[in-house]
Amino acid sequence: MPVVIDLGGHQEIISIKTSLKTKKLGLSKTGTSVKPAAAFNMAMGAAYHIMCFFTSLNDGDVKSIAHPITIHTDERDKSLQVVKVSSFKARANKEVDAVLTNQIFDVDKRGGVKFIKTLETLSALYGGGEKGSELLFTLNNLGEKSSSFELDQINKYLMVKLNLLSSTRASCLPWFKELFHSYRNQHVIELKKHTNTLGRTIVSKVSRPCSKDGATGGATNAAYCILSCYTDLALKGILLPLTYSDKDPEGNISVSFKYRNGESHHFSVPAADKALIKDIEQFATELADKQASKKYERLLLKRGNHKKAPKDWDGNSPISPNLMKTWSIKPNEYFISLQSSRWREMTSNQVYSVSGAGGVQSLLQNLLQTIDKHYANGDPILNKIIISQALQVMELLDEDTSLEQAKEIVAAKLGIIMLTHDKWKMKQDEERAKTNPNGIHCNGQQNIAGGKNTQRETNNAMKLQLPCAEYDMCHKCQSANAVNETQSIYKLISFIDVLKEAVNLYPNAQEEVHERIAAFEVTLDGASKDVYDNAMALFNQSGRHPRVSMDHAILALHR
């Protein structure tokens, strides 16, 4: 089954076998086994991860989703479709749920309904779709539903087929270099683990001779991995020779090359690594010189022996799914780690920057201490940069160097205008300053999916471009975001209070006002305990926030 993937600069066609047949050697006592590389099983593995993306549920909760799937259409907005997925979280002894929609919800996750409808159809087609049966499953070699869902095996093939590389893969470069030079000397390095007499685990490195073909294949794979650590460009079809620029002021050189289709590209490497790239080029040149015909293309990385025309590998990556394990490289070091927790962390980081810990708690349905430990610290990479810069500042502090002077020195040394923490803090201050009188942050542009945009009507009537003033509609607006900060929550508490007073003063008030109060109270529940307590203390001490008045509530009564 050919699958075309658009990678921006080019399209890659990967071929996935549909056959479920496995080697007889891998059969169980019952005569069955599962082929993780089969098209159906890889599709189910991919569906698992898409479900993690849309729902932010845990591994067990995602796997336990069952037929039937019910799609709900909003009574007032017929264009809004929603699927609610529920599951019981045994460890926390509570029910958790997630909402899939065809419109923007929290993080931009449109297409959820279309995805789950397609998945339900596929699942029912091959699994029957009986009530209570799993939505996600794999098929064995007999075409029957397997009793287990071996996701880790499927992940290995997904990572290689889709070439899902880790952003920190450059940390593997020293090991790849050692492997490359070892294969060049016709030796293979093996890392072995055993337990000594004291019960301690010992890792030993063993180098042994290997065949010529094994050395050539190993060196080619290592060379590919080395080059892929320097660039995201496609490495398939690169022609010899390479050209090298002079060292630039930052200590890097540019390596230029041409593809067989005539396109030219380049990537940068530290000048100190020029010798390594030249070694790879020399290795490729030696293989090209051995080719049977001078008419054959001279490729930097190729498949096939010298008697036949050189050819490219199939798909994105030339390496096998088990190579990283053979080379003792852990998940997320070269290929990314595919786990439900990674999707939850990604969603948490996206939501945290907008709505704070409260939004994360609402989405992930964890206790606050769990969020603080695993998710709510924002981007881990960003945190490491902040800590690194802070340590550099601390090292400069003395009687002659103030904090601000130390910051300026470190910023100049790093070639940046402002330290990362100060930049983040300034962004947070700007967001807090832009909150509405009800404590909700927005850009002033009303955006109610499928609903009536009354801001546009008002602006057209006034012939002016006014910011949105309909603060009672924030719970429906996609531009609005909650802020987990004391002053913002203080405003929201005050706004809920005036809405409640207005309803008491006007008993014939519309039913929807009660719904709005309930919606804002849900938002309020997302605030962290410290922020909520501080905001309530301000409310009890000083009354309503000075920016909140009864005028804001009257709007909710006459809509």
Given helix and strand content, the structural type is alpha+beta
Number of helices: 18
* Cα Rg: 29 Å
Strand content: 5-15%
Major beta sheet summary = 3 strands, antiparallel
The proportion of residues forming helix, as a percent range, comes to 40-55%
Across the major sheet, the strand order is: 3-4-5
Number of strands: 10
Low-confidence regions: 87-97, 102-108, 351-376
Please tell me about this protein's structure.
With 559 residues, this protein is of the alpha+beta class. Helix content is 43%, strand content 12%. The protein is built from 18 helices and 10 strands. The strands form 4 sheets. The chain has a 3-stranded antiparallel sheet with strand order 3-4-5. A 3-stranded antiparallel sheet has the order 8-9-10, covered by helices on one side. A hairpin with a 5-residue loop joins strand 6 (187-195) and strand 7 (201-209). Residues 87-97, 102-108 and 351-376 have low confidence and may be disordered.
Please summarize what this structure is:
This protein is an alpha+beta fold. 43% of the residues lie in helices and 12% in strands. A hairpin with a 5-residue loop joins β6 and β7.
